[in-house]
Design a protein that fits this description.
The chain is α/β, with parallel strands linked by helices and 706 residues long. It contains 21 helices and 30 strands. An 8-stranded mixed β-sheet has the order 12-11-8-6-7-14-15-23, sandwiched between helices. It has a 7-stranded mixed β-sheet with strand order 5-4-17-16-18-19-20, with helices on both faces. A 4-stranded antiparallel β-sheet has the order 21-22-24-25. The relative contact order is 0.11. The model is unreliable at 1-14 (pLDDT under 50). It binds 5'-O-[(S)-ethoxy(hydroxy)phosphoryl]adenosine (WTA). Residues 287, 332-334, 408-411, 433-438, 459, 533-534, 546, 548-549, 555, 560 line the site of 5'-O-[(S)-ethoxy(hydroxy)phosphoryl]adenosine.
């Protein structure tokens, strides 16, 4: 959906009623409640709307400030909110140095390599302090970076990643970590957009038992950035096994350097943490949106850290003596907020795992939990579905005990939720389903674990100090319990909200605020609801059920992929004339991508073209975006004005009713494509399954404004 273009919409999607069975409530175990950080309902009083924004002092007071702020929330340049104005602090000091006095030799990070025979590394706060300082000295003196510069990382799940993040934070340098599984080209695009002169990468890492050559991607990244006019001066290469180079790709003289060799010069160096204004940017996290290229969500220093510390304390229930494992990738916002910054700000032990959940067998996560004594576990529905499918009884074989579990990233089916609770959690753990986005810094919708019951498939109400509302397309409120869905928005700002899209303030306004803004001149936050881009409905008890994106974003295993990016990648294949990406329901990944392409005159359909398109997408974006099917069709279904009707191809891919096609410019093509696609799907065993009401609406509305 393009926000400007809603006139084409036949039925306003925000009006659609979704039939949904109410699930029963589950209450937290008494043992959990007894020890919870938030077990007194008085907390709801402190965070009620009358106390906004001052309620968030409580989060900011979890941090150590060099200079206390004078204004909690400055709205004078709405909606570019400023939190804790006048305050100064350093994030690396807050996540590392300040814990040394009392817990110097406690593990800050425990890193589990994928090969099971390789030793687990416990990195104490003291050791982390050393490593962060040494790398900060190297970045400053060898890299020549200064406060406010951007540095791009393309790192896998290794401790060098949090070390690099904290080293940048120590210097007030803005980091931009690109998910390790993304292609070199995708990384290069992000380097160019952020204008980074330095790329930090690694030679290789383990995935599914294989040592992957990762450095090769750095060469592609540098080349792509150069095409976009940005010259990478230095590529700093950590080695997975220091001293041994694991990549086939040659080191470029004068450009590429091994970090482990350079570090010898910086041994035991200490870098004073730079005291940064609360409003200084801490990092960029690129994410996909409705149109165009990925956008760099710019996160702040003080507001962000306060928000992730506060939500980690109350929603993750992290205490300093917990062993907390967030099984996600630091390349996503979840990892930034809830593997690195939140848990370390609270001085707990955060576990990181290098590899895939099922390597070498589906018991692996539970062995890790047992061996390390993990008591808080956090992961995504896609991982839960996969582990349930391949090892439904595995958790029973291991002696671990979780007090708390989290799910994040996509809607979870109630059936999968129950397996998570009963089998993974052994019925002993409380569960929080946390709804939020890259742009948000931290949780927006969830239950406060000791105080609000759980409901499978619903994330819960707005979190402390966050006041969501559902609007229809006309800005009318859709009331709780009405049984209707609409666009979920947040009425107020919160400290974790991103500051802008890097370098594109207009786009920031357009995408997130223009739709429901009441008065663009207003400096009153009440006039600026935040548009999240998700469909949702609210039950009578105030709990939200998130239905999925209302824009052209396909959420594959919790990863946001923009249709425009997928289509541009397909169009890099010379023979392709037109491309349309659509979601198809997938039992493990939630959604998978299917591509429809038509060819330029003179080219014949064939499996070679299908492979070329799939490969192009893998090269431009990464393996996670690889389409499940590529359909080479004689023509795309189009409106009379020549727009591709994605809802028609989406309907065909999902075996649903494609609706009225008589107004198309070429209605006859629909049946041809349907026969082609359905025959091929049936022949390869991709059989239709029944869709839920919400899924049907998603398909019916997909790309509807195109
Ligand atoms: C979806 C991930 C249902 C939603 C933190 C959102 C969810 C998008 C949930 C953001 C949840 C995330 N229940 N849907 N608990 N959490 N989503 O930016 O559509 O990678 O807009 O951030 O994932 O994905 P992102």
């Amino acid at each position: 959906m393009t926000l400007e273009d809603e006139s084409d919409v036949a039925v306003s999607e925000a009006q659609i009623a979704v039939h949904w069975r109410e699930e029963e409530l589950y209450f937290p175990p008494a043992a959990f409640v007894g020890q919870a950080n938030a077990s007194d309902p008085a907390i709801f009083e402190r965070f009620k709307e009358e106390n906004f924004p001052e309620c968030y002092r409580e989060y900011a007071d979890l941090l150590t400030w060099d200079q206390y702020w004078h204004t909690t929330l400055d709205t004078s340049n709405a909606p570019f909110w400023k939190w804790f104005v006048g305050g100064k602090l350093n994030v690396s000091y807050n996540c590392v140095d300040r814990h040394l006095a009392t817990q110097r030799n406690k593990a800050a990070l425990i890193w589990v390599p994928e090969p099971e025979e390789e030793q687990t590394q416990a990195i104490t706060y003291q050791e982390l302090y050393r490593r962060v300082n040494e790398f900060a000295a190297l970045l400053r003196d060898f890299g020549g970076v200064q406060t406010g510069d951007r540095v791009t990382f393309h790192l896998p799940m290794v401790p060098e990643l949090p070390v690099s993040m904290l080293a940048c934070a120590r210097l007030g340098v803005i980091h931009s970590q690109v998910f390790g599984g993304f292609s070199g080209s995708a990384c290069g695009g992000r380097i160019a957009d952020s204008q980074s002169r330095i790329l930090v990468t690694m030679d290789g890492y383990y995935r599914n038992g294989e040592l992957i050559d990762h450095k090769a991607k750095a060469d592609e990244a540098v080349a792509r950035a150069r095409e976009e006019g940005v010259e990478v001066e230095r590529v700093l290469v950590w080695r997975r096994h220091p001293g041994q180079y694991a990549s086939e790709s040659p080191m470029v003289e004068g450009r590429d350097f091994f970090v482990d060799e350079l570090l010898a010069e910086y041994r035991d160096q200490i870098v004073e943490p730079v005291s940064m204004p609360a409003e200084a940017p801490l990092f960029l996290m690129y994410t996909s949106g409705t149109t165009g290229k990925p956008k760099g969500a710019q996160h702040s220093t003080g507001g962000y850290l306060a928000y992730v510390a506060g939500t980690s304390k109350y929603y993750q229930d992290i205490h300093p003596d917990d062993t907390y494992w967030c099984f996600a990738d630091i390349g996503w916002i979840t990892g930034h907020s809830y593997i690195v910054y939140g848990p370390l700000a609270l001085g707990t032990t955060s576990v990181m795992y290098e590899g895939v959940p099922t390597y070498p067998d589906p018991g692996r996560p539970w062995r890790i939990a047992e061996r390390l004594g993990v008591n808080i576990f956090h992961t995504a529905p896609t991982t839960i579905r996969m582990l349930r499918k391949v090892g439904p009884d595995e958790p029973n074989k291991y002696n671990y005990h979780f007090k708390h579990m989290t799910t994040v990233g996509e809607p979870i089916e109630p059936e999968v939720w129950r397996w998570y609770r009963d089998v993974v959690g052994k019925g002993e753990a409380v569960i929080v389903d946390t709804w939020w986005q890259t742009e948000n810094g931290g949780f927006l919708g969830s239950t406060l674990p000791a105080l609000q019951p759980m409901k499978p498939g619903s994330c819960g109400p707005g979190v402390l100090g966050v006041f969501p509302v559902i609007y229809d397309e006309h800005g009318e409120e859709v009331s709780a319990g009405s049984g209707r869905a609409g666009n979920i928005c947040i009425r107020n700002p919160w400290p974790g909200i991103f500051q802008t899209i890097w370098g594109q303030p207009e786009r920031f306004l357009d995408i997130y605020y223009r739709k429901y803004c009441r008065d663009e001149k207003s400096t009153d936050w009440h006039d600026w609801p935040y548009f999240a881009g998700d469909g949702a409905m609210q039950a009578a008890d105030g709990y939200f059920r998130i239905l999925g994106r209302v824009d052209d974003v396909i959420n594959v295993a919790g990863h946001r992929l923009g249709t425009k990016e997928l289509e541009s990648a397909a169009l890099t294949v010379d023979k392709v004339a037109e491309a349309a990406a659509v979601p198809v329901m997938d039992d493990l990944r939630g959604r998978a991508v299917e591509m429809y392409v038509s060819l330029k005159p003179g080219y014949e359909a064939g499996t070679d073209i299908e492979h070329e398109v799939a490969l192009a997408i893998e090269n431009e974006i990464g393996k996670i975006a690889r389409p499940k099917n590529v359909w080479v069709v004689p023509d795309m279904p189009k409106t009379r004005s020549g727009k591709i009707m994605r809802r028609v191809t989406a309907g065909i891919s999902n075996f649903t009713d494609v609706g009225d096609v008589t107004t198309l410019a070429n209605p006859e093509i629909v049946e041809k494509i349907r026969i082609q696609v359905h025959a091929a799907k049936m022949a390869s065993g991709q059989l239709p399954r029944e869709l839920t009401a919400a899924e049907l609406e998603e398909i019916k509305g997909f790309g509807h404004a195109d």
